[in-house]
Write a structure and sequence with these properties.
alpha/beta; Rossmann fold; 2 domains; 10 helices; globular
């Protein structure tokens, strides 16, 4: 059976991913009854995880919806995997979204479907049925999140943490080039949250997947910025003090419709910005 994706060091960019960034926002603006994003610009390089932080209502989840093409900006350009999506037709967006995995808040599993049917949902949309090949892909994705034994269960039979892990399996089954995570540990206890973060780090380090991750949990963000996944030990481990390994994880903070910080965890900890100091305290 083929793996979900080749190891990070062996991955080759596809025709659509040869651009210099997996995702690029250029002076993007959007307003509802008031301005939410006011000319923000940033890029997500291939293989990097960018953690979106900021107070509630600053537009973090909105950034994910814009990157998926679920909403159109009022101004600016958004490029995903080399394709400018701002004016893209919905049918063309469907094709692009096959290369993007999404982990929603609260998992968003279908209660009436089994775990297998939930994980296989996007693949079954193309075939209309559960083939042997899709079944093998489902088992592979569930094995990645260590839930192969739940294949015939329903979401109501799973714990909250297990449902999040199934949601990750559903996101990775299409072997996406980009994954968007919307508060993947929200509402979970610390031990379960660590399990979810370990899976995200594993996807980052083993498969080199580009990711945008929204979180309000500082501990999760700094764990990702200070740990790597050791395949020999099959677990997440801290990077040794003094290590120079680039974990390909950067922070981006939103406030009042603007990006007020973008950089590494170390850069954030050194920041003298009063808002950032208060946020970290």
């Amino acid at each position: 059976m083929s793996s979900l994706a080749p190891p990070a060091e062996q991955r080759q960019p596809t025709a659509t991913s040869k651009a210099d960034a997996a995702i690029r926002f250029e002076k993007v603006e959007i307003a509802f009854d008031h301005p939410v994003l006011e000319g923000i610009s940033f890029q997500l390089p291939h293989g990097e995880t960018k953690i979106l932080m900021g107070a509630a209502g600053t537009g973090k989840t909105l950034v994910l919806k814009l990157a998926l093409g679920l909403l159109k900006p009022d101004a600016g350009r958004i490029t995903v995997l080399g394709e400018e999506i701002t004016q893209m037709r919905e049918e063309d967006l469907f094709a692009l979204r096959r290369k993007i995995g999404m982990v929603f808040q609260e998992s968003a599993l279908f209660d009436s479907l089994t775990v297998e049917e939930n994980v296989a949902y996007r693949l079954m949309e193309e075939t209309g049925r559960l083939t042997d090949e899709i079944h093998a892909r489902v088992l592979e994705a569930l094995r990645f999140v260590e839930l192969e034994h739940t294949v015939d269960l329903f979401p109501s039979e799973l714990s909250g943490g297990m449902r999040r892990r199934v949601a990750i399996a559903r996101a990775i089954i299409t072997r996406p080039e980009v994954i968007l995570y919307d508060s993947p540990t929200g509402g979970l206890d610390p031990v379960t949250s660590d399990t979810i973060i370990e899976l995200i780090v594993k996807q980052r380090d083993v498969y080199g997947t580009s990711s945008l991750l929204v979180t309000s949990r500082l501990q999760d963000a700094f764990t990702m910025a200070s740990h790597c996944f050791d395949q020999k030990q099959n677990k997440m481990v801290p990077v040794a003090d003094g290590g120079v390994r680039d974990l390909h994880t950067r922070f981006l903070m939103l406030r009042d419709g603007q990006i007020i910080f973008e950089g590494t965890a170390a850069d954030m900890l050194r920041s003298n910005d009063p808002y950032i100091r208060e946020y970290l305290s």
